[in-house]
Amino acid sequence: MCGIVGLLMKNPAWDERLGELLVPMLVGMTERGPDSAGMAVFGKPTPGQTRLSFFHLHGEPDWHAVNTAIVDAVLGTHRVDANGRHAIIHTDSDGEAIRALLKERFPAIVALAAGSRIQLYKDIGTPAAIASRYRFGDFTGTHAVGHTRMATESAVTPDRAHPFTAGRDFCLVHNGSLSNPHLVRRQLEPLGIRFDTDNDTEAACRFLEWRMREGDAVDAAIEKGFEALDGFFTFLIGTADGLALVRDPFACKPAIVAETDDYVAISSEFRSLAHLPGVSHAKLFEPQPRTIYHWSRA
Amino acid sequence: MTAAPMSLMKEFDLARAGVTPEAALRELNLWLHRGLTPDGPKQVRVLHPDGAHSIAAGVDADISIDVLGHAGYYVAGMNKHATVTVHGNAGTGAAENMMSGLVRIKGFASNSAGASAHGGTLVIEGDASLRCGISLKGGDIVVGGSAGSFTAFMAQAGRIVICGDAGDALGDSLYEAVIYVRGKVASLGADARFEEMTPADLESLRELLGIAGFNHDPASFRKVASSRSLYHWNADANQEY
Fold first, then answer.
1. Which residues does residue A260 pair with via DSSP β-bridges, in sequence order?
2. CATH no. of A3-44+126-296
3. CB of B52 within 8 Å of any CB in chain A?
4. What are B167-196's pLDDT values in tens digits?
C-alpha cells in the first residue's frame, strides 16, 4: 500500500500553515502506511545558502561534534539546526565539502537531501509519532510532500522510508511497486550514479533526476520514465518550483486532488483532505492515468 | 431524499465529538446489520462521511440511506435491498458485489465501481474511473458521465450504460454482459465488438435511463457485446487476439 500526500500553497499568506495542514493529511494515511513516514518541506531560499538534511541512523547523535568538525575543517559559515536524529545544516557553500566530511568522519550519519529550498525528515514509526517527534506541525514553507509507508520492497529502516531524493531540491514519494528497479539501477550505475539503498523507489527517483540533470523538463523525464520504469505507481515529485503528479497507465494506485484559490492538496484518498479549510468548495478530481499534472509556486 | 417523520429517520454523525470516526462508523454499520426492527426507522442519514471506508457495506434490508458527503472505499458494498445515495464522490469499489437494491453516486466514482455486482442498479451521475463493472455478474450500471479504461473487463452478465465517452479496452474479454455507450470509445478490448441495437436493446436502455433519471434518446447509443471468439480454444489463433 502506502499513502502519499502533498500540499502547495497558491496563496503565500498560507505558507505559515503548511505544516499545520499537512500533519492531519499525513496522519489520515496511517492505515495505508503505518511503519514509516516522512516529509520534505520546500521553503523560500536564503540567497547564497544551501540546506543539507542529515539523519543519524543508529546510536545517539552528537550534532555538537559534527558542528565542531565542520568548524575545524574551516568549511565556511554554517549553522547546525539539530532536531533529534535529524539535523539541517545551513551553509554558505554548496555543501559538497560538508557532505564529504560527514561521510568520512561520521559513518552513522546519512545525507538525506540538499538544495536551496528542501528540508527532509523521515523515520520509522507511525505517522503521528514521527510528526510529533520532529514537530512537523511547526514547519512553514511554500510546498511539501509526505509519505506513509507499508513496506513491500525493502526493509523497514529510516533510510528506506520516503521521500527519496537525488541531486538538489528534488524528491519523490511513491505509492506502488516497481518490478525492474535492479535493471534501472544497472543502467544508471555505470554513469556514476550512486545508490544509498536497495529500495525500488530510489531507482525511480534517481532515474528521473538523472533525466532532468541531462536537460529534460519534468514532463519529458516522466515520459521517459513510462518507458524505463515497469510497475505500478502514483508518483508525487517535489522540486524547487513546485509539485508534479503522475499515475501509471493502469491507474492501479489511487490519487485525488483538491484545488482552491489558496492551495492545491494531493492525497491517496479523500479522507486525508476532509479536514482542509474550504475543501467543501474545492475542485476535486482524480488524476487521469498516464497524465502529468504540475503546480508551480514561486 | 424525501422527508420522513423524525421517528422514522435516524442520523449518524461520523464526526461527532467524543467518538473516533472509526468507532462511529462501526456503530452505524452494526446498527444497519443488527439494529433494524420492522417498526423502526426506514431512512438513515450519514453526516460527515469524510471519505471513510465501508459506509453502509453489507446492508440486507429495505431501507433508504443518504450519505451526505464524500464516501471512501466500498460504500454500499454487497448491498442487498437498500437504496443508498452518496451526495458526493465515492472511492474505490462503490457497490462492489451488490446483490440487489439501488446505489446512486451523485458525484464521480473511483476505480472498480460495481465490481462483480450480481444484481441491483448502480447509478453514477458523474464519471466512473477505470475498471467500472469489472467481472459484472448480473447487476446494472448507469454512468451519467464518462467511464475510464477497462470498463466491463470480463463482465459476465448484466448491463452497463455509459452516457459519455469510454476509455481504452472497453469490454475486454467480455462474456454475456452488454454495454450501451453514447459517446466516443477510445478502443474496444479483446473480443468486444459493436452490434446492432435491437428493439429489445432500446427497451432495456429506456428502462435503465428511466431508473437513473437521464434524459437521453436510447437511439443515440451504440451496443458493445462479446463476439464470443474467446469462448473456445483456437489452436490456430497463435495466441494473438
1. none
2. 3.60.20.10
3. yes
4. 999 999 999 999 999 999 999 999 999 999
How far apart CA B138 and CA B116 sit, in angstroms, is 8
Q: Are A156 and A32 in contact (CB under 8 A)?
A: no
Please determine, for the modelled complex, whether the ipTM score is greater than 0.85.
Answer: yes
DSSP string of chain A? Answer: --EEEEEEESSGGGGGGHHHHHHHHHHHTTTT-BSEEEEEEE-PPPTT-EEEEEEE-SS---HHHHHHHHHHTT-SSEEEEEETTEEEEEESS-SHHHHHHHHHH-TTEEEEEEESSEEEEEEES-HHHHHHHTTGGG---SEEEEEEE--SSS---GGGSSPEE-SSSEEEEEEEEES-HHHHHHHHGGGT---SS--HHHHHHHHHHHHHHTT--HHHHHHHHHHH--EEEEEEEEESSEEEEEE-TT--S--EEEE-SSEEEEESSGGGTTTSTTGGGSEEEPPPTT--EEEE--
State how far the alpha carbon of A53 is from the alpha carbons of A18, A56, A79, A205, A258, in Å.
Answer: 19, 10, 12, 17, 30
Q: CATH classification of A45-116 is 1.10.3720.10, yes or no?
A: no
- The 3-state DSSP class for residue B159 equals strand
H or E element in which residue B199 lies: helix B199-212
- Closest residue in A to B70 (Cα–Cα): A270
Give CA separation, A85 vs A38, A79, A109, A140, A202, in Å. 13, 16, 9, 20, 22
β-pairing verdict for B9-13 and A256-259? unpaired
A38: cell is 516522512
SS3 state at B225: strand
Q: Of A250, A270, A275, which is closest to B89 when you measure between CB atoms?
A: A270
Residue A152: predicted pLDDT: 87
Residue B177 to chain A, least CA–CA distance (Å): 22
User: What CA–CA distance (Å, rounded) separates A69 from A58?
Assistant: 19
The conformation of residue B61, written as its DSSP 8-state character, comes to: S
Instruction: Give me the residue label for grid cell 545551513.
Output: A90
Q: Report, as residue numbers or ranges, the catalytic residues of A.
A: 2
Please identify among residues 21-50 of chain B the ones whose CB lies closer than 8 Å to any CB of chain A: 48, 50
Instruction: Yes or no: say if B64 and B44 are a contact pair by the CB < 8 Å rule.
Output: yes
User: Length of chain A in residues, anyone?
Assistant: 298
CA-based Rg of chain A, rounded to a whole angstrom?
18
Q: What does pTM read for this prediction?
A: 0.95
Contacts A–B by Cβ distance under 8 A: 46
In 3D space, the residue among A196, A162, A201 whose CA is nearest the CA of residue A180 turns out to be: A201
Looking up cell 568538525 gives: A69
Pairing verdict, β A143-149 and A3-9: antiparallel
Write the pLDDT tens digit of every residue in A52-96: 999 999 888 999 999 999 999 988 899 999 999 999 999 999 999
Contact criterion met (CB < 8 Å) for B111 and A284: no
Of B159, B167, B163, whose CA–CA distance to B224 is shortest?
B159
| Spatial separation of the C-alpha atoms in residues A26 and A143, rounded to whole Å | 14
| Cα atoms in the 13 Å half-sphere on the side-chain side of A69 | 16
The distance from CA A249 to its chain's CA centroid, rounded to whole angstroms, is: 23
